[in-house]
Specification:
Blueprint lengths: L7 H14 L1 H9 L6 E5 H7 L1 H9 L1 H12 L13 E5 L20 E11 L3 E11 L5 E5 L24 E3 L5 E11 L13 E7 L11 E15 L2 E17 L11 H11 L4 H7 L9 H12 L4 E2 L5 E2 L15 H11 L7
Length: about 350
Amino acid sequence: MVRLLKDESLVAQWQKFFEEYCKSDIETVALEYPEKRSLYVDYWKIDEADSRLAELLLNQPYKAIFNAEEALKNIDVASENSLKLHFRVVNLPDTSRILIRRIRANHLGKLMAVDGLVKKRTEVRPKLLVGAFQCQKCGAIIRVEQDEDILKEPSECFEDQGGCGRVSSFKLLTSLSEFIDSQKIEIQENPEGLRGGAQPERISVYLEDDLVGEIAPGDRVIVNGILHSMQRRRGTYRLTAFDKTMDAISVESQELAFEEVEVTSEDEKEILRVSKDPDLYKKMKESIAPTIYGMDVEKEALVLQLFGGLAKEMPDGTRIRGDIHTLLVGDPGTAKSQILTYMSKLAPRSVYA
């Protein structure tokens, strides 16, 4: 998050809002701190309390969120630890929701919501927030806040931090530096919203701290975040063309994961009843894209792929995965894409590209 100057009047406005509308929610988060470190607030609650504050949040989100998190530090709650909470907004208005392909330069720096499929994600990596650098001349420790992707070193050994004031070389001390968890995901437009043979567009989204590690490829999500540009490079040259990216403020899931789906006793009875049907396998095969005639072997293969196999451990220690891979090859116009489109809507966490 971009670090800005503290606006005392804005902090006071946010503090008043939190104390009047969110005190119980803050206390609930405080009980589970530091496992939970975020306060989630519905946008319409802010708009109802103070429309100007809500407008500022949409148009100058870095300034609004920075001061909101400063205000959260002033809220008095019964906690042994000093709270450092993230302020996360959900349920943005329709006017702030936008298709990835319609993002333009005038949207940069605004709080927007984009929805789509998670195409891929990186591993969770530590990101440097405040670097501790040791002067190689006097040994003083100089701290520099990092607000870009490129490491920022001290320009000199600053005297106000106990340094010698000379230009020097510095060594980064990771043990004294401050890090935060970071992850990048790629969001792709939902295929059902595309026209004709249009290809889905994508945008890179950066997650930090307690947002990381919660999203898997194939999830359908709404990402509320701040759009900004990232300069492209060609070797050592900086280009005038920029890539569009997003810093996530919050992520809303559009579909429940398997672990969250509640199976009632009635559902369980129905599953057991259907499992005893001797024609169950045939019915499953015939239910795959029923409007497409024939292709029995292909449909049977897709049923088997849908359920997958069992991982096997061989006597020599070799492990065979239980995943089944299918390659459909054929002439144009033989319903290959139609069958795959049907399967992508049927199978959870599927991505049709």
